[in-house]
């Protein structure tokens, strides 16, 4: 049986009296609605306060909608211009301008009906209600000059006012579900303005909250009996195999545009171990959990799925508490760690490679990097090195060379993204001096230098150990004959490291003679330069 009631919506709002049938003394359950069109978040505070709180999308409180008592559901008009708020105290639905935050109209449902949930579908505002005549669903054609309320009492919702949900993929489909008690879920075609049932499933273990996926393919149900969020396939409401199990019984659920699932847990008499669990669409276990308890209707995702809005507080055995809005950025970001693998040995002047790995429950896409900073005696405040690229497996490496022996440390940072939390890591190693033996050269002129005359020089290659066998030195001269050094020749050093050099300078002025030893696998190279004044 359907009941139709004509109501008049005035431009000025006067508070409606609370009739005995409509009075509601139920517990306070705060709920949240995200308004992406106006960049707002609305929090109704149930029976606890006489207003609805208004926040910006960053969670800053920007105002209130006053003179609203026992709010029990909200819905935004398709154009974003009006917020409709169900009022269990008085049995009416308030229309509020999202521009002024002032109430512009009130729609009495009649028959002592108490509205508890709202949703737009088929061009009408639908509501779940409870009343002496029986619980059911109803609608209001808020766009008409004389809006008409249509109530439809229905058997599956005997215990409580049912929850009504819009289907994002089908504007003419309405999903109706139980709000506690024996579980039932139904699909209605509302294209005609009257709800025509097209599917029904009963016997669902007790649940209080549900959400339709963005693609319109599933209804996610927070089932207390199953201890999980379960998925029912539309349009026939077939239970799917996939479930999202939570540590504590779930009472609230919200589904992100990409299919990610948030499930809230709450208890009137105790605090759950885990208050909020967040799952990726394909996850079998929560990717992240939070301790804050979240009750029915207390979860909503941002339009792009990068934020989760959760409202806590309300009624409990220990008394009512003010609602608190939690803005969770990147709630799907899994814990990420950095592990580093420095080389077991490193020498000054020799390149070495440090390996590393990012570890996370979520995979890594191409283009991820980690920042690298080196700190040592030469750079005690740290010096930035090039970022290290991360591959799909999460591994990375970087190569570095330090010139001096000593302790060297590396600090690495990963910025994180939507699916990964930021991470930091560090490692250190001791860089030793080269294992090769140091060498030294000296050079001495035997006589005065003169243009066209032989100039003799004596030199010696020394080492703390033995002289390198077969060592050869290279001699160059830099003077006025050219811009660069001229090769004088090479000399093989004697067993005692000595060698002789003879040269004929061609121009007067200073001449710089340079002797170099390149070194080998056992000895470090060395160079010496000496200047002589060549007379004309």
Automatic annotation (TrEMBL):
This is YncE family protein. It comes from the Bacteria. It comes from Streptomyces polygonati. Gene3D superfamilies: YVTN repeat-like/Quinoprotein amine dehydrogenase.
